[in-house]
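S.,

Sequence below, as promised.
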Amino acid sequence: MGKILVAYFSASGRTARAAKEIAAAVGGDLYEIRPAQPYTAADLNWNDRGSRSSREMNDPAARPAIDGKADIESYDTILLGFPIWWYVEPRIVDTFLESGDFAGKTIVPFATSGGSGIAGAEKSLQAHCPTANWKRGKLVRGDAAAWAKGAL
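The prediction came back faster than expected:
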């Protein structure tokens, strides 16, 4: 399994809590995928078609800039966390995947959601990063730590 990185994007703090639990459970390092321009509450209003998140999710080519860059070179396994937006991962997660060389690395996605599943995101993630070794992901709630131990 090698060295583990828990990389995550969190808009509300829910995914961050899960990521921290997972990192503690598996002995992994944490990396927050932070937008160069932080999201405001208005940006995250999915009921507003003009909000930043709505515009990004309606544009498959949108790639929000990330503040900094993860050093993924020394990691063998990456647990990748995010909230589900419009049935898939937020576009900033695509930015993360397209910003590094994940060839041969094992990636295990996990997501938080108010009701949508992770299947659409898994398909999308694999399309954005086909050279990684993808493992089945999980929509986590209160079971993040237990799931992570079993997923590896």
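The CA atoms of residues 28 and 128 lie 24 Å apart.

Coffee later?
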